[in-house]
Amino acid sequence: MSLAVLLREGAFRYGRHLLWEGINLELPRGEFAGLMGPNGSGKSTLLKVLLGLLPLARGEMTVLGLEKVPRARIGYLPQGQPDRFSFSPLVKDVVLMGMYGGLGLLRFPGKKERLKAWAALDQVDMLAYKDEPLSHLSGGQQQRVFIARAIAGGKELLLLDEPTNRVDPTSRSLIIEALLRIREEGRTGAIIVSHDQAFLQQTTHRVLCLNGSLADGSLPPGG
């Protein structure tokens, strides 16, 4: 079985505080897993560890079969996008930012990358806004743009932190539709942090609970 994520006896420490320990996780490629838990339990931290932004205190980890995290092959949506912008990038430029990691030094997105970016925008029904300043969009529309950035280019692993937080019902439905299409293709694994149980039931194969350690949650798997 090919794994997108393998974590053995993982532990993370903030100073002297052990946030979580004994974490064992196997995520097959193509599987979508939800992640729930109390506030402060370290769900966002776990995503950052898997992305290689934070180090484990102990344990072993491979992501997409590699010990060195291949960030260019991972789509990441952090929690809490900015409400205000010091400048106003265009929607198309925001999504193209998600393509730079896979291009190499001093290379810029070309026609191939732009087509992939436009396809990602189309998946969340935001292609018509590609030439608009991001700051002109509603919060739900902005979140859809950030999700398009995360999924652009056919990423092999998605790490999504509260993708439906503070979005309108229309945006929530479009995000669900986009994730279900990706899940149906069966090539991309995903770990999705959310407090929205109904959303996780619709979009994931299983739900895990993080609270000091990691355990299978009580929610039934998605369809």
List the SSEs and their pairings:
Elements: E1 3-14, E2 17-28, E3 32-36, H1 43-50, E4 58-63, E5 74-77, H2 91-96, H3 111-123, H4 139-151, E6 157-161, H5 169-185, E7 189-193, H6 197-203, E8 206-210, E9 214-216
Helix pairs in contact: 3-4, 4-5
Radius of gyration: 17 Å
CATH classification class: Alpha Beta
Oligomeric state as shown: single chain
By CATH, the architecture is named 3-Layer(aba) Sandwich
**What is the element string, with H for helices and E for strands?**
EEEHEEHHHEHEHEE
Q: How many distinct beta strands?
A: 9
Count of helices? 6
State the fourth-level CATH superfamily: P-loop containing nucleotide triphosphate hydrolases
Unreliable stretches covering 5 or more consecutive residues = none
Proportion of residues in β-strands:
25-35%
Structural class: alpha/beta
What does this protein look like?
The protein has helices at 43-50, 91-96, 111-123, 139-151, 169-185, 197-203; strands spanning 3-14, 17-28, 32-36, 58-63, 74-77, 157-161, 189-193, 206-210, 214-216. The chain is of the alpha/beta class and 223 residues long. It has a single domain (3-216), classed as 3-Layer(aba) Sandwich (Rossmann fold), CATH 3.40.50.300. Strands 5-6-7-3-8-9 form a six-stranded mixed beta sheet, sandwiched between helices. It has a three-stranded antiparallel beta sheet with strand order 2-1-4, with helices on one face. It is globular.
